[in-house]
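Hey, quick one: can you model this chain's 3D structure?
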Amino acid sequence: MYEMPTDLQYKDELRKEEIRIENELEMLNNKDYEQLEKKLKRDLERVRKSLQD
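Sure thing. Here's the predicted structure for all 53 residues.
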C-alpha cells in the first residue's frame, strides 16, 4: 500500500528539487554544458532504472 508523504516530507522534496534546478541553471549560466549534460544523463539513467523496478 502506498502512503502519502506528509506535508513536511513533500516540502523537503520540493526544496531538494529547487536546489537541483538552481544548480542546473547555474551550470547553464556558466556555459558548463558538458557538466550539465553529464548530470542530466546520470539523472535520466537513475530514473529509468527506478522505473524498471
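One thing worth noting: The helical segments are 7-29, 33-52.
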